[in-house]
Amino acid sequence: MRYIPITEEQKKEMLKEIGASSFEDLIESVPQNLRLKDKLNIPEAMSESELEDNIFHIAKKNADFYSMKPLIGAGAYRHFIPEAEKFLLQREEFWTCYTPYQPELSQGTLQSIFEYQSYISRLTKMEVVIPSIYDGASATAEAALMSLRLSHKNKIIVSNLLHPHYRETVKTYLAPHETEIIDLPYKNGLVDMEKLKILIGEDVASVIIQSPNFFGGLENVVKISEIVHSKSVLLINVIVESMSLGILKAPGELGADIVAGNA
């Protein structure tokens, strides 16, 4: 966290802006019996080196990626991140996900986005890549909305093995559309194919699965694709761990119509 100082002059300016003459005036509506009268029971301030050493010793109590091999899925995977990447991401061109609108000022940024799109296209075997999405959860929700627009239907089947955060985001995005969301159960850590055959119908816009799924299992995307496409339904394949695309067969080759996720 960056240290952002505040001077007495800045405090006065802020109080003036919100119409308060003092801090007491600002908290006037807070009853006296709810205000803290004594000092907080916290230790004295540490120096920077003492604080860093203290946090380091507390952090050592955690079970991290260096002390264990996590195979739990759930989107928690160890990655090597080059030191240069941290400084590149601090550049203002990459602070937001918005596509630059002034090409004459953004040639470098546009070039980097094009290279990113090209690599993702090669990894997923999808013809079109849209990079300007907030995160994997938002991308999944946008994919769901896309399937509604393409199919003119308002029912979606969502695998229970989709990351819970993604599921909640999809529900939030689809709530204004009054979309019926059907839960797809799992069996032995993978999508229950027989349940899918029962739930699928031509009134369904799309089926959303995740592979590797929340448990870290690899779904039989080809088989799922056959079931889904037999009813003229779109298949959305979510990739939470994009590094898996360097090993696994591309979702576009497995029958996915739309691919969403983090990268």
Automatic annotation (TrEMBL):
InterPro entries: GcvPA, GDC-P_N, PyrdxlP-dep_Trfase, PyrdxlP-dep_Trfase_major. Keywords: Oxidoreductase. The keyword Oxidoreductase applies. Residues 1-263 form the Glycine cleavage system P-protein N-terminal domain. It holds the Pfam family GDC-P. One of its GO terms (molecular function) is glycine dehydrogenase (decarboxylating) activity. The keyword ATP-binding does not apply. SUPFAM superfamilies: PLP-dependent transferases. GO terms for biological process: nucleoside metabolic process. This is Glycine cleavage system P-protein N-terminal domain-containing protein. It comes from marine sediment metagenome.
